[in-house]
Design a protein that fits this description.
The protein is an alpha/beta fold. Helices cover about 35% and strands about 20% of the residues. It has an 8-stranded parallel beta sheet. The radius of gyration is 16 Å and the shape is globular.
């Protein structure tokens, strides 16, 4: 089955952000992935609300916000007001994950839970029927352009069988080192959504790269 494609603007040219958002608007991308980092949960800082607001004003596709920050619950209302459609928080950052998921839904957004490479998929088993997506990190979060960690494929397969054996409708999204080659392996393993940063924005023709990812089945 074809996957949804969510290009990560982390690899965009921030000096020409509107141009890059327009490129995604006119492309066959499904969502736009926003990587928000705080320099605490991950060893890097990306961008905050002024930039998210500028992206939101220009974007004509659903905004897929991935929060790599501690205490993401502080920003649920703000992100919703800025027009985010999905808000994904890290399991490792949320001791009260179930409550955070409820609050994201109360704010009108889809709720996602992200798992670092060392976090087993069982950590979402007890919220799997309450969430809209699971984000499998296939690199250690913090930077674009890293190498895909192969054991992510096993995690996707285990999640696929967990989701298919209950009444969960959660999508499996994968983030980090995704290109046409790893993307094909991920779809074979049962992934529904592919995030791609450097593979799209460093390609000579980013729209053609999005089409190549969308054509995988
Ligand atoms: C990493 C981010 C990713 C990143 C992916 O912390 O969550 O979304 O932008 O970049 P690539 O596709 O280059 O690995
Ligand atoms: Zn991400």
């Amino acid at each position: 089955m074809n996957a949804l494609i969510s290009p990560s603007l982390l690899s965009a040219d921030f000096g020409h952000l509107e141009r890059d958002v327009e490129m995604l608007n006119s492309s066959n991308a499904d969502w736009m992935h926003l990587d928000i980092m705080d320099g605490v949960f991950v060893p890097n800082i990306s961008f905050g609300f002024p930039v998210i607001e500028a992206i939101s004003r220009a974007a004509r596709k659903p905004l897929d916000a991935h929060l790599m920050i501690v205490q993401p619950e502080k920003f649920i209302d703000r992100l919703s007001e800025l027009g985010a459609h999905m808000m994904t928080v890290h399991q490792e950052a949320c001791p009260h994950l179930h409550r955070v998921v409820q609050s994201i839904h109360d704010a009108g957004m889809m709720a996602g839970v992200a798992l670092n490479p060392a976090t087993p998929v069982e950590m979402v088993e007890d919220v799997i029927e309450d969430i809209d997506l699971v984000l499998v990190m296939s690199v250690n979060p913090g930077f674009g352009g890293q190498k895909f960690i192969p054991h992510s494929l096993r995690k996707v397969r285990r999640l696929r069988s967990m989701i298919d054996s209950c009444s969960s409708g959660a999508l499996i999204e994968v983030d980090g080192g995704v290109n046409a080659d790893t993307g094909q392996q991920l779809i074979n393993a049962g992934a529904d959504v592919l995030v791609a940063g450097s593979a799209v924005f460093n390609a000579p023709d980013p729209e053609a790269e999005i089409d190549a990812l969308k054509a995988l089945e």
